[in-house]
Amino acid sequence: EVQLLESGGGLVQPGGSLRLSCAASGFIFSNYAMTWVRQAPGKGLEWVSGNSGNGADTYYADSVKGRFTVSRDRSKNTLYLQMNSLRGEDTAVYYCARDDSSGWFRWFDPWGQGTLVTVSS
Amino acid sequence: EIVLTQSPATLSLSPGDRATLSCRASQSVSSYLAWYQQKPGQSPRLLIYDAVNRATGVPARFRGSGSGTDFTLTISSLEPEDFAVYYCQQRGNWPPRVTFGPGTKVDIK
């Protein structure tokens, strides 16, 4: 069974940092691009970042470019999102999802259960 | 950036009704459009990809149509478990700039 399990969320002060993890299982991790999507409380979905299967190419939304960094550890089948210089507007549930469109970011399936990041003093 | 607009924002219907949800793109996205369902407290679930293809396990009552800038998700006869929020999503050109529509909430009338 394909599973994605996010962790690492929590409460952080403005300007602080946090690293999220997404542990993948049930598929060959290096064969798939992955993506991060967030959802602020009561709001819609916002794409954050995409990462190619080999980890060489990463793409970011303008709202997080220069502050967030995506990486992956193939030995651990884990995707990471390093978030620096956090702001109140970064408060959201963060989901990782598998790009099921052969690296073209056309659709995402499945999604993890999400991890909540709260940026507040 | 390609903007997706969904209408209506809320659709109040009864079980057994037909639901028609619209997603419009600010410029052509060809057929590169996906639909997701999200229930309260759950993560999104892929329903439709490339505008017309049902994802694995999605019931046949869900149908996607359209191309270019105008897309429709039709639920032929609403089941109780279909009351949820529905989002459309596109990738944009390359490098990817994925965007989601604001969502349509289908609630019980």
Strand content of chain B: over 45%
| Low-pLDDT stretches of chain B | none
Q: Please identify the oligomeric state.
A: heterodimer
Low-confidence stretches of chain A: none
- Count of DSSP strands of chain B: 11
Radius of gyration of chain B: 13 Å
Classify the helix fraction of chain A into a percent range. under 10%
Topology (SSEs and partners):
The complex is a heterodimer of chains A (121) and B (109).
Chain A: E1 3-7, E2 10-12, E3 18-25, E4 34-39, E5 45-51, E6 58-60, E7 68-73, E8 78-83, E9 92-99, E10 108-111, E11 115-119
Parallel strand pairs in A: 2-11
Antiparallel strand pairs in A: 1-3, 3-8, 4-5, 4-9, 5-6, 7-8, 9-10, 9-11
Chain B: E1 4-7, E2 10-13, E3 19-25, E4 33-38, E5 45-49, E6 53-54, E7 62-67, E8 70-75, E9 85-90, E10 99-100, E11 104-108
Parallel strand pairs in B: 2-11
Antiparallel strand pairs in B: 1-3, 3-8, 4-5, 4-9, 5-6, 7-8, 9-10, 9-11
Summarize the structure in words.
The complex is a heterodimer of chains A (121) and B (109). By secondary structure, chain A is an all-beta fold. Chain A contains no helices and 11 strands. In chain A, strands 2, 4, 5, 6, 9, 10 and 11 form a 7-stranded mixed β-sheet that branches. In chain A, strands 1-3-8-7 form a 4-stranded antiparallel β-sheet, with no helix packed on it. In chain A, a hairpin with a 6-residue loop joins strand 5 and strand 6. In chain B, strand 4 and strand 5 form a beta hairpin. In chain B, the strands form 2 sheets. In chain B, strands 2, 4, 5, 6, 9, 10 and 11 form a 7-stranded mixed β-sheet that branches. Chain B has 109 residues and is mainly β. The chains are: A mainly beta (121), B mainly beta (109). The interface between A and B is medium-sized, with 24 and 23 residues.
